Amino acid sequence: MQAKAYAAQAADTPLAPWNFERRDVGPQDVLIEIAYCGVCHTDVHQARNEWFPGIFPMVPGHEIVGKIVQVGVDAKKHKPGDLAGVGVMVDSCRTCEDCRNGQEQFCSVSPVVTYNTRDKNGQPVYGGYSNYIVVHEDFALRVSEKLDLAGVAPLLCAGITTYSPLRRRNVGKGHKLAVVGLGGLGHMAVKFGAAFGADVTVLSTSPNKAEAARRLGANRLVVTKDEEQMKAAQRSFDFIIDTVAADHDINPYLATLRTNGVYVNVGMPVQPFQVPSFTLAMGNKVVAGSGAGGLPETQEMLDFCAEKNIVADVELVNMKDINAAFERMLRGDVLYRFVIDMKTL
Ligand code: NAP
Ligand code: ZN
Ligand code: ZN
């Protein structure tokens, strides 16, 4: 079918309107009319070739929510009219070890992320800055009618990416959690950390976010550029989640871990981190990473959010203002996630 979108034609040109063919709805596919799509920092990294040479034209967007408008003849999980969400992946083999363990995002055979890659037939796949998307029914998650739909969109990436590592380590009551960077991912990490019962501190470059951090559920904000404040925070956290998109030195953060503390990186800066062996040895420190989340855990997270009434704090943007939204995100000028209102496409 014909679909409308905003696409980057090249890594150095702004996003602009583009029409293209979506694949037909196969027997096990669903067609989703997209209502909202969140703007993840990953969209900027990829549209500008910051990680690797991309596939152009590129339609970014992997925080997708909307309504199912058609289901394939063999699709059983959804019916027309249902709300659904699509996150960072749209297909996988379903049989490899990771797929069987519900970690489809690490599929070793045929992983298909939502955009900037090719599907099993070698065709490029296009993301959520578009009016429609066709996905296999397994990759359409159930979304509650109870929540504000625009605020649900960022849960599909920012939400699951922060929920998953906190759950995996059972972060909760009695733990001191630090969230580095109060952006799209960071503000969700604060909400989840608070919902799980942890004592949450935000480590931020932005002193003006202190009040907002408290409103989101943090108990305090430490300004990372302030040496005195960072010194006072040394050896104080059990767990750190680092959500920073820009290149940065993680050693000052590692110094704020208690003995046996765990640092988990979820940001995707380009430059590798450098950590002296002594820093790791002294205090039994764990440096870990985490990538999005699988289908079962993403559904669990969406259900948890429906139960606890958790959504992202969003600023709705008009599709035509997407390039300005990218620039504002790079300046840290967003509280805390831009979400495109697809009615404006
Ligand atoms: P974002 O909204 O731009 O937030 C990043 C935050 O980092 C900013 O709000 C800012 O917070 C802080 N920051 C910016 N520049 C900094 C600097 N030079 N030094 C220290 N802190 C800085 O981005 P996002 O959408 O949350 O994404 C964050 C990163 O996660 C991106 O790299 C994205 O690609 C990655 N990501 C990874 C996964 C995964 O599966 N692991 C999934 C989604 C996204 P303050 O103002 O509070 O300092
Ligand atoms: Zn993302
Ligand atoms: Zn697999």
What top-tier CATH class of the largest domain fits best?
A: Alpha Beta
Which molecules are bound besides the chains?
NADP nicotinamide-adenine-dinucleotide phosphate, zinc ion
**What is the radius of gyration computed over CA atoms, rounded to a whole number of angstroms?**
20 Å
What is the tally of helical segments?
A: 11
Beta strand %: 25-35%
Output the structural class.
alpha/beta
Number of strands: 17
At CATH level 2, the architecture of the largest domain is Alpha-Beta Complex
- Percent helix: 10-25%
- Secondary-structure element sequence? EEEHEEEHEEEHHEHEHEHEHEHEHEHE
What is the mean pLDDT?
A: 97
Which regions contain 5 or more consecutive residues with pLDDT less than 50?
A: none
CATH superfamily heading of the largest domain: Medium-chain alcohol dehydrogenases, catalytic domain
> How many domains comprise the coordinates?
2
Q: What's the main sheet like?
A: 7 strands, mixed
Describe the structure.
This is NAD(P)-dependent alcohol dehydrogenase. Residues 12-340 form the Enoyl reductase (ER) domain. This protein has 345 residues and is of the alpha/beta class. It folds into two domains: 2-157 and 293-344, Alpha-Beta Complex (Quinone Oxidoreductase, Chain A, domain 1), CATH 3.90.180; 159-289, 3-Layer(aba) Sandwich (Rossmann fold), CATH 3.40.50. The chain contains eleven helices and 17 strands. The strands form four sheets. Strands 3, 4, 5, 8, 9, 16 and 17 form a seven-stranded mixed beta sheet that branches. Helix 5 links the parallel strand 10 and strand 11. Residues 40, 42, 62, 88, 157 line the site of one zinc ion. The site of one zinc ion has 8 residues, from helix 2.
